[in-house]
Amino acid sequence: ERRPSVIVLVPPQCQQCSGILDGLFAQAKAEGLRFDLVGAPERVDELRSLDRATGNGGSDVLLDDGDELAEAYGEGVLTVLVVAPDGIVAEVLRDPTRDASIQPTLARLYHRTTTAA
Asked: Which of 103, 31, 18, 85 is nearest to 10 (CA)?
């Protein structure tokens, strides 16, 4: 079972994405969530290389035969999917920046507040 999790749809030649992914990886791991890098099977070596550069290899590489997820959520751009425990995609973050945050979504999913009361 792959939920709850953070799923990242990685476009081709995205080695520069590792800096962005490190921050998102840390946010997911702070909540105990899986962090999955996803791409087409023919890109497995590229994805594994990116995995090693992200969270010291702490993510999982998943292969999407036919790139169906990328087609569903938009091809050609780094796309982050936050998947809730019930399997619903709670957030879609397209082309995130280095300082991108999924914390508000994670806080909402786990009934926490993001600011002090």
From this structure: 18
For the chain, the distance separating the N- and C-terminal CA atoms, rounded to the nearest angstrom, is 35
pLDDT digits (tens, 9 = 90+) for 44-57: 999 999 999 888 88
75 — pLDDT class (breaks 50, 70, 90): confident
CB atoms within 10 A of CB 70: 20
Q: What pLDDT does residue 3 have?
A: 86
